[in-house]
Predict the 3D structure of the following.
Amino acid sequence: QLLLCIFTFAMVLVPEAKDQSKAAKGRRRGPARPPTATPALAWALDDPYTPMADYERSIQDMVRQLRNSSEPGDTKCQINLRLWRSNRRSLSPWAYSINHDATRIPADIPEAQCLCTGCINPFTMQEDRTMASIPIYSRLPVRRLLCQVPGEAEHKPSGKKKCHKKYQTVMETIAVGCTCIF
């Protein structure tokens, strides 16, 4: 689901990047027109109908599903063909943990952790350490909490400076799955 969310988000950014590259190369026919869509990473904090708000809600749904999962939290290096989720059917299986950071929105993000050092040999169904399981990373947009301290004249007499909360969009690297390499 996380990969689906990333793919969907990428589909929003790619068409915009293509339009920008065409305009930069001068291939556009006719007069240049101003962009009609707002950039994908620009959103209003109070607007519940933005692509970023939808993206954050989908991550919250994934975290909720992970916390409420009735499937065993098995951390063994083995394939489980009875489960429908690809992370347990992979030759490089992984489990999800919750990456928590209180200074980030979303605060909780599912993150993959490889269950094997090696990979599962599909013929013996045993771990083969001549190969290696490695995480697959993706960069996800998050909002990071920044604390801006106002000018010296505005701070409290007690010596503590007042902090004005401000969020900034940054890209964070998160493991989204595992793969097998030689």
User: Anything to note?
Assistant: The two ends are 27 Å apart (CA to CA).
